[in-house]
UniProtKB/TrEMBL annotation:
Stated name of the protein: Beta-lactamase
Gene: blaOXA
Transmembrane segments: none
Residues in Penicillin-binding protein transpeptidase domain copies: 59-244
Top-level EC class as recorded in UniProt: hydrolase
EC number: 3.5.2.6
Family recorded in the similarity comment: Belongs to the class-D beta-lactamase family.
PANTHER family for the chain: BETA-LACTAMASE YBXI-RELATED (PTHR30627:SF6), PEPTIDOGLYCAN D,D-TRANSPEPTIDASE (PTHR30627)
Reaction it catalyzes: a beta-lactam + H2O = a substituted beta-amino acid
InterPro entries: Beta-lactam/transpept (IPR050515), Beta-lactam/transpept-like (IPR012338), Beta-lactam_class-D_AS (IPR002137), PCN-bd_Tpept (IPR001460)
Source organism of this protein record: Sphingobacterium bovistauri
């Protein structure tokens, strides 16, 4: 009788030890330097960088990294995956036709293939993609991908990622990208290949750099992302920056500043 009661304790002990041994550590040592990098780009917020091999997270603010924000155009990552999986988009060379209507940015006023639309963050292109996927199918795929906390309905299908209550945290962004790169998502191998092609921003002799920006304005608050990963010597490093302009009325540096700050942090960590 005593042995039966003792066995659960033994099992629990070993499970706890294994869990603790595999729990990533958190490093705040570079907080002041990262905050300074943000300040030079007129930003306030957080960046989370994950060294998958060493199982170490680096950040200037882990509290903010656990808060949820609208995914904005970083949702184009999931949106593209779902479009490829559902055959709404055939491949990265599929042309998204411009309807001739005035768009928010002149750079969007042309036909673009999927890679071009992804890199240019063409909102109307991907609004059309989302509508072609449809709310029911979108929710089914989001559940399958464990891309949680998206509020999708027929009435919000074209904008749920840029307004409303949908949210994702920097930790969740990194988890999703890690599952993408390590092929832990329940998707076709061909979809993985297509995603890496449209996601890639830079390839050098020492590393390949993938990145996606995002910008939402909700209740007059500008919030932005820059997320992605770097593959260097077969080792992957994942990052998710979320920030706001220090002055909400001055967004002059916001477009470029998020990626510039990210790259400076990656250089600080000797990843780039």
């Amino acid at each position: 009788m005593m042995m039966r009661n003792f066995l659960p304790f033994i099992l629990l002990f070993f499970v706890a030890c294994d869990f603790q041994g595999n729990t990533p550590t958190r490093n705040l040592d570079l907080k002041d330097k990262i905050d300074d990098i943000f300040s030079k780009q007129d930003l306030k917020g957080t960046i989370l960088v994950y060294d998958a091999k060493q199982k170490v997270y680096y950040s200037n603010d882990f509290g903010l990294a656990e808060k949820g924000y609208l995914p904005a155009s970083t949702f184009k990552i999931a949106n593209s995956i779902i479009a490829f999986e559902s055959d709404v988009l055939k491949d990265e060379n599929t042309v998204m036709k411009w309807d001739g209507q005035k768009r928010a940015l002149p750079s969007w006023e042309k036909d673009m293939n999927v890679r071009e639309a992804f890199q240019a963050s063409c909102l109307p292109c991907y609004q059309e993609v989302a509508k072609n996927i449809g709310a029911k199918r979108m929710k089914t795929y989001l559940n399958k991908l464990h891309y949680n906390n998206m509020e999708v309905s027929e009435s919000t299908i074209s904008d749920f990622w840029i307004k409303g209550n949908s949210h994702i945290t920097p930790f969740e962004q990194i988890d999703f990208m890690q599952r993408l790169y390590t092929k832990k998502l329940p998707i076709l191998n061909t979809t993985y290949d297509k995603m890496l092609h449209i996601f890639e921003k830079e390839k050098t002799s020492t590393y390949t750099y993938y990145g996606k920006s995002g910008w939402s304005e909700n209740n007059s608050v500008n919030n932005g992302w820059f997320v992605g990963f770097v593959v260097k010597n077969t080792q992957a490093y994942y990052f998710a920056l979320n920030a706001e302009p220090i002055d909400q009325n001055n967004t002059s540096k916001f477009t470029e500043g998020r990626e510039l700050a990210t790259r400076e942090v990656l250089k600080l960590l000797q990843i780039l």
